[in-house]
Amino acid sequence: MTFTAAQIAALINGRVEGDPEVAVGNFGKIEEAREGQLSFLANPKYEEYLYETKASIIIVNETLELKKQVAATLIRVADAYSAFAALLGKYQEIVQQQLKGIQEPAYISKTARYGADVFIGAFAYLGENVTIGDRTKIHPNSYIGDNVTIGNDSIIHAGVKVLHNCVIGNQVTVHAGTVIGSDGFGFAPQADGTFAKVPQIGNVVIEDQVEIGANATIDRATIGSTIIRSGAKLDNLIQIAHNVEIGNSTVVAAQAGISGSTKVGKGVMIGGQVGIVGHLHIGDGAKINAQSGVSKNIEPGKAVTGSPAYDYTSALRSQALNRRLPDLEKRMKELEEALARLKNES
Asked: Which tens digit of pLDDT belongs to each residue from 276-333?
């Protein structure tokens, strides 16, 4: 599958500078790209490679001023990084559209229903009363439990488990190995010191245009729903506990864990390895730095860091003071010695 510079420029609203008929078949990093590949330049520190690369087409910013002659055909756009990301998305969409039909062997319950142009990979399992929307792709070795609903244009990658009664919206991507709808961690302490399991009878609801990374776990609610709102993006290896709500367009980086019944607002940014205790409220637009431990509610728009997490600016000041402690200790000793000398002289 090849595309000319003119075709690519039309897809990303770019302007061709060079040969509009030169064609590429795949992508490459600007420092490693070969003839027949497309690359991009967004970060100025890589500009030196622009004059050396073997790439046939390069997407660059409209404002870039060339210092030397460039062999490749350029496509100038307002924002090279965003344009390249959009192009990758369109390319992936084209590839996914080519996947259609049902591979064998696959188990599909007689009560399961699926729409037009779906793909169901080998060894996939679709339980009772499952509903799959149009153009959705269920990759091999996936498990779709009883009464699950998945909307249109969604992608369920290999080995994903979507357990009973869960709901997944339109244009959702779930990467390999993720489990949606496992039991929440609910156990009631008993008089004899043991723990009795609290049945988890809720479900998970994932709204439209959500992306979930590989090997994440999203637990079903004890009662009601664990909810991932539309536009949220979750990285690999994330734990979302029972009855948590993640707001619209919130992003959560790898290895973060959010405990039960915590409500995370919209547009929140949560760094890697963050831990959030249960029953909290994280306000809209809050930012939580990597490896922070959150034990209290966070106000909308506030940035926090540390464990326990507190105001980001104050934390930076504390860190600066900590670095100065040896010098301050030395100065303190000098002042004490000077004061002792003054006392002796008097």
From this structure: 999 999 999 999 999 999 999 999 999 999 888 868 787 777 777 778 888 888 888 8
Which two structure tokens, joined as six digits, stand for 68? 């030397």
pTM score of the predicted model: 0.81
- Per annotation, catalytic residue among 164, 175, 242, 279: 242
Q: Of 83-97, 119-133, 135-149, 213-227, which range is least confident?
A: 83-97
Give how many domains the chain has, as a whole number: 2
Are residues 181 and 41 part of one domain? no
- One-letter identity of residue 240: I
Contacts 24+ apart (CB under 8 A), 115-118: 115/152
Q: For 137-151, what is the mean pLDDT?
A: 98
30: CB partners within 8 A, 6+ apart: 39, 40, 41, 46, 49, 50, 53, 55, 58
Nearest to 33 by CA among 67, 62, 56: 56
Is 274 a member of any domain? yes
Domain extent, residue 153, equals 101-311
Q: Is residue 165 part of a domain?
A: yes
Q: For this structure, is 242 an active site residue?
A: yes
Q: Between 210 and 90, where is the model more confident?
A: 210
Structure tokens belonging to residue 317: 């000041």
3-state secondary structure of 286: coil
Q: Are residues 107 and 214 in the same domain?
A: yes
Q: Is the pLDDT of residue 254 over 90?
A: yes
Instruction: Give the CA-trace dihedral at 81, 84, 89, 90, to 10 degrees.
Output: 150
In single-letter form, the type of residue at position 188 comes to: A
Mean pLDDT of 33-43: 95
- At residue 309, the pLDDT reads 80
* 84 and 156 together in one domain: no
Q: Classify burial at 300, counting beta carbons within 10 Å of its beta carbon; exposed 0-12, middle 13-18, buried 19 or more.
A: middle
Find the length of the chain.
346
The DSSP element (H or E) to which 203 belongs, if any, is: strand 203-206
Dig out the tokens for 15 from the structure.
């302007």
